[in-house]
């Protein structure tokens, strides 16, 4: 399954040995810490720590490379949009304006704006590895059990589990349909122009959607015949009890969140200001 995007990758690592509920709670605490602070020192620490945790998980970069590139492209577009719509936001936040490059009107590039957008980028780079790591190291069934364990309805949890399970199926169906279309003479290789390739790729979407709808109907009928949703509670085959390492991980992440909040708000502001 390692060849599929955003699917569970089975490895032997300390991260995999944690229960799904533990990883979900730790991810929420980690994301909260990263989103609440604009202290560059804390964000750099969290970013480096996320890389270390990623290394410990034994997940290879090529396993998530395509998704990572897509997210980084989105991050670049987001930074460009921030500068276009609010080019002086850093000046407003830090109270000073050191102009690096002069442009027309309010689009002068300032050191404060670059520093502000650096913090935005660090936020994404801190949360993205943790999010990808949580997805690829947690089995969908265990993820559903984790959601149910923290109070989410098992109907919603099971729907999320099915969605995660279905991602690899959609990818396999897309490849199979694309190969079938190419066998019929539909060229989607680099030999064609980009717009032509996009047009040819659209010919794959119709059978893919019909195939997906058929599978959804089969699964819905199977669940209905088995009385899914009739009871208020259900048991989980992949649910695991908490062990010492799970409690230790949660405590460490709680302490991390508390330390982040104390350092961030010790002067009453979320922003670390090196210009004052």
Automatic annotation (TrEMBL):
The keyword Transmembrane helix applies. The chain crosses the membrane at residues 20-36, 42-57, 64-85, 114-136, 247-266. Keywords: Membrane, Transmembrane, Transmembrane helix. InterPro entries: ABC/ECF_trnsptr_transmembrane. It comes from the Bacteria. GO terms for cellular component: plasma membrane. Its main location: membrane. The keyword Nucleotide-binding does not apply. It is found in: Membrane. It is a multi-pass membrane protein. CDD domains: EcfT (cd16914). This is Cobalt ABC transporter. It comes from Caldibacillus thermoamylovorans. The gene is cbiQ.
